[in-house]
Write a structure and sequence with these properties.
Layout lengths: L2 E9 L2 E6 L3 E7 L11 E3 L6 E4 L2 H10 L5 H18 L7 H17 L9 H7 L1 H18 L6 H15 L3 H22 L8 H19 L7 H10 L1 H18 L5 H28 L1
Antiparallel strand pairs: 1-2, 1-4, 2-3, 3-5
Helix pairs in contact: 1-3, 2-3, 2-5, 3-6, 4-5, 4-6, 5-6, 6-7, 7-8, 7-10, 8-11, 9-10, 9-11, 10-11
Length: about 290
Amino acid sequence: MSSITVAKVLNNNVIIAEHPQYAEVVVIGKGIGFNRKIRDRISLSSVEKMFILRSQEEQEQYKQLVPQVDEKLIEVVQEIVLHIMQSSRQPLNEHIHIALTDHISFAIRRHEQDIAIHNPFLYETREIYPEEYSLAEYAVGRINQAMGVTLPFDEIGFVALHIVSALSNRHISEVKQHSVLIGDLVGLVEDNLSYHVPRDSLDYSRLVTHLRFVLERLRRGESVRETSSLDGLMKREYPEMYMLAWKLTKVIEQRVRIPVYPAEVSYLTIHLQRLAQKKEDEEDMEQHED
């Protein structure tokens, strides 16, 4: 039966071990290091609730991180990562152990020093990644409970982006870039329409979802079926919204450096026209009330 051999105990929850396939590995697991001695053997069949960092780079980063972090936090993060894996039933990039532990440790330190960091893309993140946001809510709730802290709501958005990054195997900067871009696009729409879209409204949810799907299609290289008749109709019937949609696609092209299919402009125009109509309806109602 395959087993790993303890090379060094970093703390109760983290050991360095010799693995029959991956050579030296960092093994994270609740109580994995408790009462362990060098050369102890641990059966791989018992590694169900442990995580093995195989990448040399990840190992080195984690080894540096462990001495700086509360041991209890490592245990809670492991529990959270297990919960994410079981809930999503998808493989996670192992970097989440480092990214999440480091981020939460820093967030707790900031909280203790009364340094608040506002997350301007909280609503966008919740709309774009609802499942990951829900997992992040669980994570922050569990951290608050286990560590005796009260991290602010803003942290849910930050943690959600780390979860998205690990599940999609994309770098956190790319994931964050999408949230920032969508926030900027919504701002551009609001400026052009002189209309604030309520963040808890269906209109906001529809707009963000549509923009998200545009970015996802671009990322996957999917084309949108050309509809020249629709394009002509939108340009003729709703010239202002068509021009705004065109501006938005140009911003997207500049930021993600991928050309946007012309058909996207037509579909986006439909969404924008609905929003413009909503604004007009609200203004009409206000005038009647006056």
